[in-house]
Structure formats: C-alpha cells, structure tokens
Amino acid sequence: MQAISEQKASAPIRLVDYRAPAWQVESVELDFDLGIDASELSARLLLRRDPGQDAPLRLDGENLQLLSIALDGTQLPATAYRYAGNVLEVDGARDGSVLETRVRLRPAANTALEGLYLSGPRETGFLLTQCEAEGFRHITFFPDRPDVQSRYTVTLRADRARFPVLLAGGNPDGAGELEGGRHWARFVDPHPKPSYLFALVAGHLEVIERDYVTADGRPVQLKIWAEADAIGRCHYAMDALERSMRWDEQAYGRNYDLDVFHVVATHDFNMGAMENKGLNIFNAKCLLADPDSTTDDEYRHVEAVVAHEYFHNWSGNRVTCRDWFQLSLKEGLTVFREQSFSADMNSASLKRIEDVALLRRAQFPEDAGPLAHPVRPAQYSEINNFYTATVYEKGSELVRMLAGALGQEGFRRGMDRYFDRNDGHAATLEDFLAALGEANDTDLTPYLAWYGQAGTPRLKARGHHDATRREYTLTLIQHPSGTAGTGARAPLPIPVKLALFARNGDMLPLHMDGQTSVCHELVVVLDQHERSFVFTGIADAPVASLLRGFSAPVILECDYMPDELALLLAHDVDGFNRWEAGQQLAARAYEELRDGSPGDSLHAWCDALQQLFGGTAVDDALLADLLTPPGEVELAERETAIDPQRIHDLRQDLQRRLAERLGADALRQRYNALAGHTSIALDASSQARRRLKRRVLELLNLLDNRGACELAAIQYRDAPGMTDRLAALALMVHGRAAQAEAALLDFRQRYAGNALALDKWFAVQAQLPGESALDRVLALEADPAFTLKNPNRVQALLGSFVRSNPSGFHRTDGAGYRLLAERLVALDALNPQVAARLATAFNGWQRLEPLRRASAREAIAGLEQHAGLSRNLAEIIGSVLGGH
Ligand code: TRP
Ligand code: ZN
Questions:
Q1: Binding site membership of 387 for ligand 1 (Cβ less than 6 Å)
Q2: Of 352, 432, 440, 790, which sees the most CB atoms within 10 A?
Q3: CA distances from residue 358 to 150, 352, 393, 793, 834 in whole angstroms, order as listed
Q4: Which ligand places an atom closest to the C-alpha of 114?
Q5: CB of 831 closer than 6 A to ligand 1?
Q6: pLDDT tens figures, 314-339
Q7: Which ligand 1 atom sits nearest the alpha carbon of residue 132?
Q8: What is the Cα–Cα distance from 694 to 696, expressed in whole angstroms?
C-alpha cells in the first residue's frame, strides 16, 4: 500500500494542546536489509497502553511503502488499518500487543537528508540516518515523539563487500556471516531512548580508536569513522572528545554510559552534528581538522561541536525533552555547557566576546523582526524551523543567568538534582527550574518569564553622584522589546554584574545601602520595572562598568560620555567589558561619521586604541578584537532606513581613521614583527599572533593597498597553514589586488580534492563587497565543485553571499533578492530544511530603505505565490512577509 500524501497546510501545533501519549513502546526490534536504491526493514513494537486513555493506536509514518503488517502474530486484513495523512491507525491493539510492520525505503532518492539516506556517490558512498526532530517516521511506523522512550535492538544485514562497516547506537551484541556474501551485526541499547536519537551507518569507512576509562571505572572504546581520504584528519577531534569526557566528569560528575562511543563524519548533512545515542554523526566541517586545510577559528569550532554533542549524552539523551516546545531544555543547556568547557580550554574572555558577538549578529536580529519567538515557543508549524539562534544561543544565556544566580556550587548542586531526578525521563523547563531551585531552597520561577516572551529587553541605566553625601545612585529601568508579544509586560529578573571605576582607572570598593561586607564587583538583580541602588563612600563621580561579562541578554542604554567609555576601554579588567566599551565607543564614532560630524567619540576611540596598541596591557588576541568595530549587520540593527552599501562605506571610513591614527609605519612594523615567528602551533599565543597579524594587515590595507597586498601575496606563498593562507587570500580578493586572481587559481588547484577547503574559496569570493559580488556568485555556480545538493556548498556560496555580504546581496536593482528567490525554489525541491534556513536571510527587509524594500518585497511575495513550496519554506516566507 502506498502512502496517500496530503499536501494540505497543517494547523499549527500548540504547547497548550499537549497530551501524554496514549501508547508507549516498551521495546522495539528493528531488522534492516540494507541497499542503496532500496532498503527494507521490519519493526517489532511491544506496546503499552495508558490505562487512563482509550485512544486507538496511531503511529506516525511519512511516505512509507508498507509491505506487510501483523498484530500479535496475525497478518492484518486491509479493513483493520488505515494509512492516510502520514498516520497509520490500527484496530484491535491491546496493552502488551506486538505490532510488526515491514516497509521499503529508497535511500539514494532521498535528497532531503532526513530519515535514511546516501552520502556520496551511489557506487562508493555510505548509508546513514538523521532522525531529529521527526525523521524516524521516514524510516518506520512509530509514535515519533520524544516522550515515548523505548529499548532498541537493531540488526543490520547487508552485502559485506559494499557495506563492510555496520553501525547502530548502543552496545555491539554479535555479528557474523550470511549466505551470498552478506553479513550482519546487532546492537542493543540498554538505555530507553526517544526515537529521534536512533541512528545507523553502513558502508566503507575507516576508523581511528582510543581506549578510555571513565571516572567511575567503565572501559570505553572511542571510535571515529570517516571515509579513507578524511580519516587522517580525525585526530584532533579524538583529542577534543577525550577532553570533553574528562571535563564532564570533573565539572558535572557525569560519566559516559555505554561500552563504545562512535562518531562518524559525513559531507552530506543539514546541520552541524547530531547527538544520536552512542553514535554521534557530524557534518565533516565540524569534525575534520588539519593545519593545511583548517583555520584557527575552525579548530576551536570542531572542539566546541565535539563537546556539544558529547555533553548531550546527559543533557538531552539521559534527560530528554517532553515535547519539542522544550527544545531549549537540551539545546540551551548544552550550548551553555559547551561554552563553559571552551572557556576552560581556551581564553575565557575571548570565548565570551565571540559568543556575545554571535548572539548580536544572529539572535538579536531574529528577535527584532517577524521571525521573533520565545525561547520556548507557544506554537509551531514546522519544528525544523525552530532550531534557531533564539532556542540555542539565547537559551544558553538564560541558563547562564540561572547559574549566576545560584553561584558555582549552588548550580552544581542544582544540576545534580536535575540529572538525578529526571534521569530516563522526558522533562520540561519547569522541571529544570524546579530542580535547580529546590536544591538551593530558592524560587527560580520568576525566570520562567524569560522563556515565554520574545524580543530583546532594553535596560536603561542612569548614574547620579552626590558629592556632599559621597553617594552614587544607579537607577536601572527595563523596557520589553516591541516583539515581546501581548501579555508579556511583567518585569523580568535582570542580573546586572557591576563595578565602579575611579577616574584614575582603579576599581572602587562597593558599599551598598549600609551593607557591611566590601567587594569590588557585585550582582544586583533588577526584578521590577525600575529600581535605584545607592553606593556610599564615593568621593568623586565614578564610571560604572555594567552588565560585566554580559550578565543578561539585554540591550544596555547608558548615557556615558565618550571619555568614560574610553576609560573603561583602557582600564576595565573584565576583558569582555573592556571590549564592550570599545564597541560602544566605535558605534558612536560611526554615528558621528554618518551624521557628518566626526567628534569626541571618534577621537576617544582612536586615542584609547592607540594607547593599547603601543602598550602591553592586553594580549594580542584581545587587541585584535578591540581593533575591530561592530560588524555591518550589528550597525544596521541600530538604523531604520537601512542602506547596506552606505553602512559598508562608513564602516570602512571608520577603520581607515583608526588606521591613520595608528600610522602606516607602526602597522607595518607590527606586521613584520608578528610575521617573523609564524607557525602552525595551536597554543593560545600562536593563535593570538595570527589573529592580530590579520587585523593589522587589514588596517594597513586601508592606508596602503598596494603595500598590504604585496605583503599578503608573500604571506599567501609562505603560509605554513590555512589560517595565514586564507587571511592573505581574503585580503587580496577583497582588496582587489592585482595578485588576487593568480592566488585564487592556485588555491582552487591546490585544494581540488578537498571540499571543505574549497568551501572557503567559495565563501571568500561570495563576500566580495559591493555590486560585483553577484556576477561572481553566478560564475561560481558553474564551477564543477558546486552543487545545490550539498548543504555545505550551498552555505559556502549562497549562504555567505546573502548573510555575510550585505553590500553585495542588497543591490539597489534587487538582483540579489531575485537570485535568492530563484535558488530557494530549486533548493526547496531538493532539501526543504536547508531552503528554509537560507530563506531567513530575507528577515529584516521591512527596515531597508524604500527602494530596496520594494524590490525585496516583490521577490518574497513572488516566492509566496509559488505553488508546491514545502511546509518548511512556506512557514518562513509567510512569517517574513506577513509580519509587516
Ligand atoms: N540536535 C542537534 C544538535 O544541536 C542538531 C539537529 C537538530 C540536527 N536537527 C537536526 C542535526 C537535523 C542535523 C539534522 O546538536
Ligand atoms: Zn545540540
């Protein structure tokens, strides 16, 4: 029987409609006969009925070809079940019934990369699965929801020559030969799990292995699998995995819980990676690393993603989500755990700067427009569209606030309680807050409000100094964002970490409202609309360093004078706030230029940076970040009639003025000093030198284009690793150097067989500023290495163009918008998840200047009219357009 596919627009799914499942699956046995074009599988489900409900047995199943169905050993007649609208309804099931189905799947024809699919060419590629969020229903009939948790026994059968490696989640439980050159392997997972954590992999793969013993004494075999040409690039990931496992034991007391831990790399993947129980699957770009093809930033990213997926074993797998509205329960928490790990492994303040910059670049714009949604959305149409910066990054910020409120020991106590109490269960955000609170005898429910409202709150701060009373009064006021939604006007608890600086740059001791204990930094929580805090014993007007470490995800508005920001930039020992003061000052300097009146902010910014550039107060990496003003996307966020070309030009002008202040000679000298001892070493100071060297050359390029490009050409030629090579290539391409085309050709040939390296070649060109980028993109689409079928290629070329090149994408003639709309239609037919994500680049069109706004609207409206869009893409287009 064939599925009757119904293309009707489905009604949104609402959190308030949640009902516990009427049927559980106690155990499931899956038997696969694997083949590239056709795979068949039998599923045997032991069913448990909730005695309190009497709903018929309904199972999810999408586009499944049902070959046979039996209940309690008896084949069912066609009258005893119905399969329509992606639901299989079966009559006659009782508590303890066993349902057996057999279906046929078509992996090679699956271009959506959801369910069972083929990675690589038909002849040599391998089979794998992706189930989160709702891919399991593309594999077999099942109650495909995370609050159904089952024990899995999985048997794989396949031709041995074509599929020498057979893997599934859980512990290995036998393997052997079959007739006709076939073989089998079985895996049993002792931990009940939701269906979205199921995974299998089958094909030609190489392996590297390491023995590990957990803190509680369990020997574990760590195995990383990749295709032959990639296995040599897995060693760094293995080290990162071991570091992650040790860290989770020490920081959270969490041990791994199976005898094997498999990790697999694939080039065909919709997202970064997936935490399937015992069988993590990674997009190759988040796993493979070697000095010749991987930049420093990418090395840190690999370490972070390996850690993220590993940490899910507790925050996500052992304790999972009751429903997809609770997604941030596992994602926000796991991002927070990863951020803490990365801070411990690398420079903590650089990590914080990087994460907050990402939040501002990706999450703030999302939260400020028609795609805004709470960290826990109230409804969705397509769950895959809710794997957003809000759920992940803002979700992590919320956990950070909770951790801050409890302190390190209290948070650990709360996490122990959370894991222990919810182990093996499907939990909610309320369960999380309750466990943290109860373990600390405190009520954290006020923080729930953060999970329920969209938008970035604004925090206004005013300081007043009374010289005669020697008092400093800090008044804090909060305002919800315009996208917060109705009924969201209750004040949020906003923790504000602060310090006060004297004019000589010293931190002042803090005496608040007669409290006796003295400290130099403290946290006040603004839990009402407005509140004032009085500090005594302050002789002269101080400068307040607020929201240190970015203690809450808000937009701070404070009436600093330029020299006050310059003081913080020069003296704040909180690396994040030092950077933040510089960003604020740079944004004001930018506004001065925009308004045609360069003044105090510009001077203060340049002066302070010149001081730091000549001194030794900050390390090379922080200096590089301090010398970088807010990006074009962030600057656009502050405006209403956005002209991306003008923003680009003004930002260039701003940087040119900074470069002038530093001076071409000083920049050249610094560059030469840094270039003197370049290497591929990954230690912090080597990475820092490369980072600063890149920044210094970029600034020099604004004063002496010829000279900088000559240095870049030499740097490109002599680069010992990818960080230096790519930086030099980007500088030449974006600086329109005479040497650029030769370097591009060289790079193209050098990395002809290395898709991940070629992605950087695509991205660099797609980010060429200005109108000419579009023709480049069109030409590059014809390169034989480009294909719409691979998500990484799409991201490298089209994603870089529409997301990381505002002045290129937002052409005044609207050609960028038309290109995106056309490609979205083609892409949607292949891979709806990737198309929907790319389409979010249209977000924010309402705030463009009128000319661009009109052509963007036209392109989006045309797309909306297109027949047969996927639910994924239709939902994004509908929201982006409709939120007018
Ligand atoms: N849970 C994964 C993670 O955060 C991400 C994920 C969700 C995913 N859906 C996916 C990965 C679909 C690949 C495809 O680590
Ligand atoms: Zn995750």
A1: yes
A2: 432
A3: 37, 10, 8, 22, 20
A4: 1
A5: no
A6: 999 999 999 999 999 999 999 999 99
A7: 9
A8: 6
